User: Which sequence fits this backbone?
């Protein structure tokens, strides 16, 4: 489905006539020469068909998210749909009971980014047109009750089509047609990087990896001869292209990036490799690329660049799922699956479109274990569907993505189901003493003293839900005594999160010996050191903490 507003930043714009001709020839060859039936990924179950006209959020697109109430939220922003003909926000239960939460105002145009769920429980998105300052792009916030607020207006000529992501520091980060920005929780926006030729045309949304840096792709870059690049930008704005795509290894990236459980970044390209139809790849944060699966548009679907750029999804068992907007015998798109053993399969949407076509949102895994997504067309009414895919994963508890580490006494939010006032939350096997319930699908718990780095569990009655993420309990040094001493001096270090201490250093030298007394105290013997002041550090599985003051060796 083609969009109004700003032209998509697709590879089609940058391809030469020769590349187009080669691609068409390859497609025709495949159509007439391949008769094999593709391996089928698990078939989606259509839970809801959107209604054509102004009463529904037809033509769903962009990010869908699970809210704190366990429902799923998304947008349908195709033209002439919704009460004001500019689209609407829908809320839908995991079983498919849908309702329109709010219609976009008449001047809010192309709000098809979908949402990021903030740690404050609100939803954040972007519109390409309609701000009151210059009728241009803007960022907005929506409460769970559907109250919309314009929170930042961009200058003329800056197009925002992706929802901002929230970083581990609590700030939001996003990319527009010309820049990367940071936005505080209060809505104050600053530019941290401006794209300058020859490295221009950002293609995908940002992803914050475990190293704290932001990763994404651009279409034009000198490093690759304009075949696309993966770039890294720090939250303070230090920018670097870390990989340049090339036809022999896959070129023109067509998805956003995600980080897998192995720490690698995963995505898909649109061209190159043996069939000139792209591939699924993984890349290290240092820029080492490995191809995983070469795409055949007839059997796998095709990442054709017409839709909003989406991402892959890795579910709890390590399998990757994704969607292709087009391709297949009927050009209706696909849902694909790539196992951790690199076995690929695809479900091709049927030609009759009754089950939907043109999937146009990043898939999500709900805490009930199922994967959910939308198609922008097809279905009973021809304007899109909401569907689920069974993965075999059991229900689980999902930690707030920006709260995967913290000190003792940190407040951690988590999603799930079946929570009650009797629910017991444990961090690495240690029970939290303070739990606050918000309905049956969301709670917050305070990291207790003695908590271990590890998975988080929530037990309600006979049911225990486990997080797929590891929560890291950070150590913290508050003080130490004495503040000075000689080699072989016994020093008492006080702090929090010390129960799993694996090492103590004075400066760069390991303590002669150390003893973990409790979660709040460690003793260590000063090693042989030159005279002077040094920082004491403690390392645990949750990280390394440095002392706020220095110990003086005398």
Assistant:
């Amino acid at each position: 489905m083609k969009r109004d507003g700003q032209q998509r930043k697709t590879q089609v714009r940058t391809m030469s006539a020769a590349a187009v001709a080669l691609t068409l020839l390859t497609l025709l060859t495949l159509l007439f020469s391949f008769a094999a039936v593709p391996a089928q990924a698990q078939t989606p179950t259509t839970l809801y068909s959107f209604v054509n006209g102004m009463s529904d959020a037809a033509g769903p697109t962009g990010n869908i998210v699970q809210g704190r109430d366990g429902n799923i939220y998304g947008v349908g922003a195709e033209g002439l749909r919704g009460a004001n003909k500019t689209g609407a926000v829908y809320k839908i239960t995991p079983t498919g009971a849908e309702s329109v939460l709010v219609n976009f105002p008449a001047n809010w145009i192309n709000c098809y980014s979908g949402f990021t769920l903030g740690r404050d429980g609100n939803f954040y998105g972007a519109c390409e047109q309609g701000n009151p300052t210059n009728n241009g792009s803007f960022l907005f916030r929506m409460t769970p009750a559907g109250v919309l607020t314009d929170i930042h207006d961009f200058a003329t000529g800056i197009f925002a089509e992706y929802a901002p992501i929230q970083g581990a520091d609590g700030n939001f980060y996003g990319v527009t047609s010309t820049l990367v920005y940071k936005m505080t929780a209060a809505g104050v926006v600053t530019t941290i990087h401006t794209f300058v030729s020859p490295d221009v045309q950002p293609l995908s949304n940002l992803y914050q990896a475990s190293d704290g840096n932001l990763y994404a792709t651009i279409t034009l870059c000198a490093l690759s001869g304009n075949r696309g690049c993966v770039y890294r930008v720090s939250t303070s704005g230090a920018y670097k292209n870390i990989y340049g795509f090339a036809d022999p290894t896959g070129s023109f990236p067509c998805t956003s990036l995600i980080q897998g459980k192995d720490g690698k970044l995963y995505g898909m390209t649109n061209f190159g490799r043996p069939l000139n139809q792209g591939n699924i790849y993984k890349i290290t944060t240092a820029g080492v690329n490995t191809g995983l699966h070469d795409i055949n548009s007839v059997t796998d679907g095709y990442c054709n660049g017409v839709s909003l750029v989406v991402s892959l999804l890795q579910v709890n068992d390590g399998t990757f799922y994704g969607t292709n907007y087009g391709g297949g015998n009927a050009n209706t798109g696909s849902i694909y699956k790539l196992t951790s053993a690199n076995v690929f399969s695809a479900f091709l949407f049927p030609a009759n479109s009754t089950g939907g076509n043109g999937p146009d949102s990043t898939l999500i895994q709900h805490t009930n274990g199922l994967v959910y997504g939308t198609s922008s067309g097809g279905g009973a009414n021809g304007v899109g569907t909401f569907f689920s895919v069974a993965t075999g994963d059991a229900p689980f508890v999902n930690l707030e993505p920006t709260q995967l580490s913290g000190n003792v006494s940190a407040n951690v939010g988590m999603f799930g189901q079946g929570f009650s006032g009797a629910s017991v939350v444990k961090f690495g096997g240690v029970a939290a003493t303070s739990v606050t319930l918000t309905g049956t699908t969301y709670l917050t718990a305070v990291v207790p003293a003695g908590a271990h780095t590890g998975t988080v569990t929530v037990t309600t009655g006979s049911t225990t839900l486990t997080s797929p993420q590891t929560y890291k309990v950070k150590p913290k040094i508050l003080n130490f005594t004495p503040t000075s001493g000689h080699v072989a001096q016994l020093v008492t270090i006080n702090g929090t999160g010390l129960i799993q201490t694996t090492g103590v250093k004075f400066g760069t030298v390991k303590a002669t010996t150390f003893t973990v007394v409790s979660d709040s105290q460690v003793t260590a013997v000063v090693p042989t050191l030159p005279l002077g002041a040094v920082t004491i550090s403690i390392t645990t599985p949750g990280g390394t903490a440095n002392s706020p003051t220095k110990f003086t060796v005398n």
Remarks:
- The domain at 475-553 is CATH 2.60.40.10 (Immunoglobulin-like).
- The two ends are 74 Å apart (CA to CA).
- The mean pLDDT is 91.
- The helical segments are 17-33, 297-300.
